[in-house]
Design brief:
This protein is an alpha+beta fold and about 200 residues long. It has eight helices and four strands, in the order βααβαβααβααα. It binds flavin-adenine dinucleotide. Flavin-adenine dinucleotide binds next to helix 6.
């Protein structure tokens, strides 16, 4: 899976702190260290609405439809997902779950190859892509764009980075968190994604 940052609010910590300071007219106290200290305090108080002033957008490639179905349940995020109705997806790979042995994976790949052959056959016979796709496995990879504000990113990462979450979406959460921590350590450094 590849997770690429497409856009992030420039200087997000400065913006969040700038907005938060309006409530106490303390704008004059601004500096990188002071801003970060303020953000950490706000988070510890549960005053997370100020995190909504910054946002980040990622392009995700090579995620299975199974994981994408889970990710797109997050209603406060915005999405674009590659359409299997309009895009020919015969070259999309099958995502390999780590629990499958070599032997099991070979069988899964053989079944996937057979499904792709049938997909091609159906399209050649005039079946629309939107119907031919019904025979493709849920492990077929997809591409999507996800955008959310920092408050929602914290929510997504907490839920999807927890032990109870599925391995593939946890992998996504880990990569998104790594990138977000680089850009806004005060907002994200208290979070972690379990192995
Ligand atoms: C480990 C795990 C297992 C899961 N298993 C299942 C399952 O078996 N079946 C299943 O269907 N789903 C399952 N889910 C999905 C889960 O039920 C949620 O749909 C998903 O995690 C999105 O969470 P959310 O609603 O908190 O977040 P978001 O949609 O991202 O919303 C963020 C927050 O905004 C607020 N919010 C958003 N919309 C509303 C609203 N309409 N009203 C009030 N407050 C709102 C809530 O505080 C919410 O937490 C699972 C999720 C996890 C993490």
């Amino acid at each position: 899976m590849k997770v690429e940052l497409l856009h992030i609010t420039p200087d997000p910590e400065a913006l969040i702190a700038r907005c938060a300071r309006v409530s106490h007219r303390s704008e004059s106290k601004s500096s990188l260290d002071a801003d970060r200290e303020l953000i950490r305090k706000l988070i510890s108080w549960g005053h997370e609405s100020v995190l909504e002033f910054a946002s980040a957008t990622f392009l995700v490639e090579g995620m299975s439809r199974a994981a994408a179905n889970q990710l797109t349940r997050h209603r406060l995020a915005s999405f674009v997902q590659e359409s299997q109705r309009f895009v020919d997806v015969r070259d999309r790979a099958l995502v390999r779950p780590p629990t499958l042995t070599e032997e099991q994976w070979e069988k899964a790949r053989a079944l996937h190859r057979r499904a792709v052959e049938l997909y091609e056959e159906l399209i050649a016979q005039g079946v629309p892509k939107e119907d031919a796709r019904y025979i493709l496995p849920i492990g077929t990879e997809t591409r999507l764009v996800i955008s959310a504000n920092f408050r929602e990113w914290r929510h997504i990462i907490r839920l999807r980075g927890a032990k109870a979450a599925q391995w593939e979406i946890r992998r996504f959460a880990r990569e998104a968190l790594r990138i977000l921590q680089e850009h806004a350590p005060a907002v994200f450094s208290d979070l972690e994604v379990v192995e």
